[in-house]
Amino acid sequence: MRSLLMLALCAGAHGAADLHGPSAVPPGWRATGGRAASDAVFHNVMLGLKRGNGAALKELVAEVSNPRGAKYQQYPSYEEMGALVRPAAHHTAAVKGWLAAHGVAV
């Protein structure tokens, strides 16, 4: 559920995507007008979800680091680590669904 925190923060207090309204023009500056409707503005944004299986990751690190352990220096592959700590699929789907519902290209 914690990985949905970002989703809740993005929703804002009233469920709107905007987290703040327009600000006043700072002293010494002047307003020049808004953008034309035809001016497209794109932003690349990266969201991070909390990793899963923190306890299993700690256990794995302890096992491969213990010289007396059976798994000493038997490090998992990149794919195995990804499968271990990847966020839950339903969390990822919930965030992608919310973004798509608010017009964000995913």
- Roughly how much helix do the residues carry, as a percent range? 25-40%
Overall SS class: mainly alpha
Tell me the number of strands. 0
Order of helices and strands: HHHH
Average pLDDT level: 78
What are the low-pLDDT stretches, counting only 5+ consecutive residues below 50? 1-18
Q: Multimeric state of these chains? A: single chain
Strand content: under 5%
Kindly report how far apart the N and C termini lie: 21 Å
Shape: elongated
Number of helices: 4
Using only C-alpha atoms, the radius of gyration works out to: 22 Å
Major beta sheet, specifics? none
Task: Give me a quick take on this structure.
By secondary structure, the chain is mainly alpha-helical. It contains 4 helices and no strands.
